[in-house]
Amino acid sequence: MGTGQHILTRKTPSAMFLVMTIDDGGEDAVREALTGLSGIVTTVSSRVPEATLSAVVGIGSAAWDRLFSGPRPAELHPFIELTGEVHTAPSTPGDILLHIKSDRQDLAFEVGRLWTASLGDAVTTVDEVHGFRYFDMRDLIGFVDGTENPTGDDAVAAILVDAEDPDFAGGSYVAIQRYVTDFTSWNALPVPDQEAAIGRSKVENIEFDDDVKPTNSHIALNVIEDANGEELDIVRDNMPYGDIAGDREKGTLFIAYSKTPAITEQMLRNMFIGEPEGNHDRLLDFTTAVTGTQFFAPTTEFLDDPPP
Ligand code: HEM
């Protein structure tokens, strides 16, 4: 198995997400920039060794064949748009994802700036989000986010492609969605109703027992199992983002790493179509997905020496 990119780093105070499309004729410059990314991270982090700094790059389905010859990751396909009775998860353009994490916003900014400069006019940035860690690891909706993420070996097993796709073992699938939240409505909802929407208590962050947890709560719809009753996990690295003023966009940048996109897709179906159908995630009544893109994050060996 190849070496995975630095995905499983701890939650940092700052994260940036750049989604780009490749302009016509930009393929060679992108291939060159992919091999240069680790050097950029090194030159920035070597000056502030005490600060965590990492950058993960993902490649979209259509871009894969434009950039590389040879085999492609077995399950790489565009983000699947979902239209439920009430809510929609759109599929939006994106050939390249750069996910930068750091203790310091200046270092994250510097990596993004240098890498974007190295790409020149080969790409167009279609979404750029500067996320920040909110106190207590809470989302802007006030709930602690990330508690049930797998850790240690379980996290590695959850995100890395293995023997099922030997050419791409050590890589990961990564999906992102940017959500815009209506905080006027959310904050008008009494806390017990907010807790029912999530399926956990707000202050103490305790999961509700199954007999009181509503079937349309975020937790109930996102705990899924395989045919043997084993829970299926993804690793989420969501970040709050946004501007404060009333009508400016703010919410959650959802990002999930997994060994197969099928797990994230099942969760999204449960949330948007509902389980059973029509029983959609109550959280979606307050927060709207405005982007949705699927990528594959290859191994470091692949990025250092991509096939022609
Ligand atoms: C759990 C927030 C979107 C999958 C949670 C929790 C919160 C939360 C507060 C409970 C604590 C935790 O375990 O992290 C949000 C917000 C979202 C969002 C604010 C977007 C606005 C999504 C999406 C998915 C997802 C799109 C899947 C495609 C999960 C999973 C859990 C979870 C798997 C853990 C369930 C468990 O094992 O208990 N989320 N989430 N979330 N969320 Fe989300």
Write the layout of secondary structure elements.
Blueprint: E1 14-22, H1 27-45, E2 53-60, H2 61-67, E3 82-83, E4 88-89, E5 96-102, H3 105-119, E6 123-132, H4 152-159, E7 172-181, H5 183-188, H6 191-198, H7 218-222, E8 235-236, E9 239-242, E10 250-258, H8 261-272, E11 287-289, E12 293-297, H9 300-304
Antiparallel strand pairs: 1-5, 1-6, 2-5, 2-12, 3-4, 7-10, 7-11, 7-12, 8-10, 9-10
Helix pairs in contact: 1-3
The structure holds protoporphyrin IX containing FE.
Protein name: Putative iron-dependent peroxidase
Family: Belongs to the DyP-type peroxidase family.
Cofactor: heme b
Largest sheet entry? 10 strands, antiparallel
- SS-derived structural category: alpha+beta
Number of strands: 12
Structure annotation, total helices: 9
Integer tally of domains: 1
Helix fraction, binned, reads 25-40%
Task: Give the rounded overall mean pLDDT.
Answer: 97
Distance from N terminus to C terminus (CA atoms, Å) equals 21 Å
Ligand inventory: protoporphyrin IX containing FE
Q: Helix and strand string, N-terminal first?
A: EHEHEEEHEHEHHHEEEHEEH
Strand content: 15-25%
Low-pLDDT residue intervals, each spanning 5 or more residues = none
Broad shape:
globular
Roughly how many Å is the radius of gyration? 19 Å
Cofactor: heme b
Pfam family, one: Dyp_perox_C
GO molecular function: heme binding; metal ion binding; peroxidase activity
Domain Dyp-type peroxidase C-terminal: 137-301
